[in-house]
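Our consortium's second objective concerns turning raw sequence data into structural hypotheses that experimental partners can test. To show how far this objective has progressed, the report includes one record in full. It was chosen at random from the queue rather than selected for favorable results. The single chain below, 115 residues long, was entered without modification.
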Amino acid sequence: VQLVESGGGLVQAGGSLRLSCAASGFAFSSYVMSWYRQAPGKERELVAGIASVGGSTNYADSVKGRFTISRDNAKNTVYLQMNSLKPDDTAVYYCNARYFTTNFWGQGTQVTVSS
């Protein structure tokens, strides 16, 4: 099983980034896919999630209207489009795959937003 995140980097406030998470080794289309983040000294928090079927999504209040999660089951990939980035969005972003009690995590990608 692998979840490989990419697309992180350094961006100025107000800018945009698109994170990708390429999955392999499991039945991707059956899993709920989510993005979490963890800032220094803080607990890991849910940023956005997308259902395995139907495409319903949920977002943390802090990112609603700025971030969009999507998935391409044909490519086994989940995305996080991040617009209007703020310094408070600075964190390591992790991809998560969940099916009932089974959880897989990626290694994380750093996002740094400068003011």
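The partners drew two points from this record. The CA atoms of residues 94 and 108 lie 4 Å apart. The radius of gyration is 13 Å. Both points have been shared with the crystallography group to help prioritize constructs.
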